[in-house]
Amino acid sequence: MPGKFPVSILKRGVAEIIVEEEMVRLLESGKKLRLKMGFDPSRPDIHLGHVVGMRKLRQFQDLGHQVVVIVGDWTAQIGDPSGMSQTRPMLSAEEVRANAETYMQQFFKVVDKEKTEILWQSEWFGKFSLADVIRLTSKFTVAQLLAREDFSKRYAAGRPIAITELLYPLLQAYDSVAVQADVEFGGIDQKFNCLMGRELQQMIGQPRQQVFLVPLLVGTDGQQKMSKSLGNYVGVEDPPSDMYGKVMSIPDILIMDYFELLTDIPDKELAEFKQQLAAQSVNPMILKKRLAREIITQFHSAAAAGVAEIHFERVVQRGEVPEGIPEYVLPRHSITIFDLLVETKLARSRSEAKRLLAQGAVELDGVKLSGDETSINPIDGSIIQVGKRRFLKISIKKAEA
Q: I need a labelling partner for 172 at 20 to 30 A (CA). Which of 198, 248, 261, 399 fits?
């Protein structure tokens, strides 16, 4: 039964709780709390940055509380910049549903499906009339909305802000009213929107939700928050070898953040890791290997983590060509490297192929290729390598007799 909780649940992996004293009283009350988390299925895939908040939801579920997931099928069609300083393209209802289906499959790799209530915004916004919209907008001022950092920066710089974007925080706030949320979970970049929900609940006469904010996970580049559009992400659906290699590529300065936010390793052990890193008494690679194994075990298995580690040591550390690499049968003629990368799915598009070549990330039989080379002539058995982890063996189609 809810009521007892470990203090660490409010400390580890937490950026801010508004208001912590009220949150503690709620947890101690024994009430089964309704924990709201919304997501906009603007993209189908989940990465480790999303997992930080999802892990918190699972911890509260294990204490007996109810997770309420809101699929933002309306707000996804509006788009929330969330610090991107640009509008997102509106999605069709079909695109939203397809993305949501994939997203939810991945979501339940972390969160307990049996203890989760799934609601779609269209269940209430589909019934909204113009009068309802006007009533909702009348409760907030333009000045309040422009207090949001992203909006204020764009307004000051003279960059456009669509009216629909101003509606986004209001719709997210109304979600809290519709589901009678006790707590809303989100990244620290969602603080403004979550507080709007708390305020709207008070206006309507509901108890104000608590706001539980988690840190933003910095991506593998060590600079910006993890994002698929920036390419600095580790996807929960990534194959084990890719996941392992990406985790190993993070800067050493992020090791402790990843351990704290993405694993269940006890705090005492983490304190020892931190001390060892500070004293330079441990090779950071040893800790990163432990981190990679922990993460892969969560989303695949311990056995898969072991195989991924062997692959990493053989291919990346010793520079060997991995066993069992995929093979591509090529007709006996020259081909442009751009076409080869796209046809073999080593690049998703010609533009990505050009970018990889410009970065010096493509090799043919151990020789780096440049973007100036329009055609290549691989021989039977040639090895194409992209980055440190992707390999392809070329077989030449034999001429018919």
A: 261
